[in-house]
Amino acid sequence: MRPIPICSLVLLLLCAHLQACPTACRCTNPASILTMDCSDGGLLTLPQGIPRDVEVLILKSNLLDHLPKSAFQNFTKLQALHLQKNKLESIEEDLFAPLSELTSLYLYSNHLAHLPDGIFQPLHKLERLFLSSNKLSSFSDALFSPLPRLKTLNLAHNKLESLSPDSFLHLQSLTVLSLSSNSLLSLPPGLFRGLVSLSVCALYDNQLTHIPDVLFQGLHNLSWLTLANNSLQQLPQGLLRQPGLQHLYLYNNKLRTIKTEGMEDPTQLKTVDLRGNQLETLPAGTFKNSPDLKTIRLQGNPWRCDCNIRYLQRWLTRNRELIKDRPLCETPPAVHGQPLTDIPEAYFSHC
After folding, report:
1. 285-311, pLDDT tens digit by residue?
2. Residue 253: CB partners within 8 Å, gap ≥ 6?
3. Of the candidates 21, 20, 32, 82, the residue with the CA atom closest to the CA atom of residue 56
4. Which of 78, 82, 137, 176 is the most buried (most CB within 10 A)?
5. For residue 65, which of 37, 81, 44 has the smallest C-alpha distance?
6. CA dist 277 to 141, 232, 280, 308, 327, Å?
7. Whole-model pTM?
8. How far apart are CA 351 and CA 349, in angstroms?
9. Residue 35 pairs with which residues in a beta bridge?
10. Strand 303-304 and strand 104-106: pairing?
11. Does residue 5 register a pLDDT over 80?
């Protein structure tokens, strides 16, 4: 008997995997990564017959409300686990214990109100963790500490009201953090210490009234920051001069003034969005030394068009291509509703 070529053996093994695929699922092998997709199947429990060497397991959009701690004990090669859009209310502490190769975990859009302290302890290779759209109101300082390789953490759309200074202490690889759409009233000064790789930080749609001056200090890789849809009345000192910051979104707050400290320092800002605040003027030099600026939005502020706004009016007139909206004068009555860039120079002749 002639020996079976190696390529034929590989094909036979692949076919065996596909034949073993549970009825409610679709099994594929793109780029030699065994993937089992059981999404949108109305599943109440894990399907029987999942291949032991599955590497990507997609169980999203089902009706799973509980998983026994032995659910994944045979799937030690699993790299990505999709459990989003189910009805999970709690998770056993040892559920992920066998998954030491896991790099991506999707748990968003469930009903999780609590996570056991050691739930992520075995996941030393985890890089992406999505926990948004759950019911988390708090978590322990130890929850994320076993995840030194974590790069993306999404906690948006939960019920967080406060955070400990040590919440993210050991996440030195973290590049993307979202805490948006929670109920945060304040942030402790040391919350982001040690996050040396952080480049994207989303804090929009909370109830923040104050940001500590030191909150973003040392985050030299931070390039994208949104604090929009809060109740901030002033910015932390030096935020417009934050080293490396390129995109800053501050719309829909209650900002009345912008601090002028450090105006001589150069910036790398490309986008500044100040729409929908309570600004009446901006101090001279606000956008000085910002050669990379490409987009600025200022509409929806009650601009007081008197002598104090002359710097801003002149700067806007010289840089019309950067203005992506039409900031209007609120007062005095003589220029009410008039675009700042349309005010003639003669108007300031008495200044």
Report:
1. 888 889 999 999 999 999 999 999 999
2. 227, 228, 229, 230, 231, 232, 233, 276, 277
3. 82
4. 78
5. 44
6. 35, 9, 9, 18, 12
7. 0.91
8. 6
9. 28, 56
10. unpaired
11. no
